[in-house]
Amino acid sequence: MKFVEGEGKTVDEAVEKALKELGALKDEVQVEVMEEIESKGLFGFGLSKSVKVKVSLLENNESGNLKSKSKEILSRILELMDIKAEVIAKETKETVELEIRTEDAAILIGKRGQTLNSLQELITLMVNKGGVEIRKRFVLDTEDYRRRRSEVLVNLAQRSAQDVLKTRQEIELEPMIPQERYIIHSTLQDYPKIMTQSRGEGIDRRVVILPK
Amino acid sequence: MKELVEYIVKALVDKPEDVRVNEVKSEKTVILELKVDQQDIGKVIGKQGRIIKAIRVVINAAAAKSMTRVVLEILD
Fold first, then answer.
1. What is the pTM assigned to this prediction?
2. Residue A202: is its pLDDT beyond 60?
3. What is the CATH number of the domain that holds A177?
4. What's the mean pLDDT in A112-119?
5. What residues contact A169, with CB distance under 8 A and at least 6 apart?
6. How far apart are the CA of A197 and the nearest CA of chain B, in angstroms?
7. Is B23 in the A-facing interface, judged by CB distances under 8 Å?
8. Cα of B76 to nearest chain A Cα, Å
9. Which one of A73, A129, A203 has the shortest CB-CB distance to B48?
């Protein structure tokens, strides 16, 4: 386990110093107070105290790391975009959700979520590059966009399925990101006479709804 | 705008110290010329231009706020 020793007048100060040296955040480490040294000042004036701590980087800190790191990167990007915002990071078993609170939500979402999705893709790559092993999906959201979009997609899937049933002709939807294609697939998975597939590569990948 | 591109690109490449962004400003357009190490070009462009496209979308959103047009070019 990687660790650093820090010294200061108070435990907080000592920990702070050690964290700086480690380049870590407080919730990524374990702190152990090693010794408190008290020395009386000259003529008994001003009791001076110094504390030594041992700060160890937790081995199992990857998920905590992902959360704070992605939040930090996103906040910095927003700042550079000149968008005043507050980022709230939440973690679930499979995802890190980054909610952006801002007055510029419209700009941030972009046409059909294009800007939000691009940011999401970049954040994923940038966090990944830092050497942390990605085991979670990053989901960016603002003003409840993902939920609203999901409702639209469920609707679209159901309507398209009806059309396919009527015409017996397949329908190809517009290109979508993986999480959006997943919504279409799962909405229609229990339709007995309908099948869904994904076609195309990369940013061109789209769901096709066909009769079974 | 230059700083935004630098920040994103530096986090994507293997040699962040070789990332250069040159800003050419005219009245309503800003041209950003990006230079990275030869080995890193693929990391900035991505499969089918996926990554550079995402970067362009983000800087255009930022530019929309200031009513300018931003063009991002990769020099090689």
1. 0.74
2. yes
3. 3.30.1370.50
4. 96
5. A211
6. 22
7. no
8. 22
9. A203
Q: Is A115 within 8 Å of chain B by CB?
A: yes
Q: What is the pLDDT of residues B34-47, one digit of tens each?
A: 999 999 999 999 98
CB atoms within 10 A of CB A132: 16
Q: Which of A97, A185, A176 is nearest to A144 (CA)?
A: A97
Q: What is the DSSP letter of B37?
A: -
DSSP A46: S
Across A54-83, average pLDDT: 83
Judging contacts by C-beta atoms under 8 Å, the chain A residues touching residue B53 are 118, 203
Within this chain, do residues A168 and A199 fall inside the same structural domain, yes or no? yes
- Quick check: A126 and B12 CB within 8 A? yes
pLDDT digit string, tens, across residues B21-37: 999 998 889 999 999 99
CA angle A142, A147, A152 (to 5 degrees): 120
CB contacts, 8 Å: B8 with chain A? 77, 122, 126
Q: Give me the helices (H) in chain A, please.
A: 11-22, 62-80, 105-109, 114-129, 145-167, 178-188
A138 and A170 inside one domain: no
In this structure, the answer to whether residues A188 and A202 fall within a common structural domain is yes
A55 and A106 in a single domain? The answer is no
Residues A118 and A182 in one domain: no
Q: What is the pLDDT, as a whole number, of residue A97?
A: 95
Overall number of domains in chain A: 3
The verdict on A135 and A102 lying in the same domain is: yes
Tell whether A123 and A168 lie within a shared domain. Answer: no
Residue A195 lies in domain: 148-211
The complex's ipTM?
0.94
pLDDT in tens, A5-43: 888 888 888 888 888 887 777 767 778 888 777 665 555
Contact B57 A118 (CB under 8 A): yes
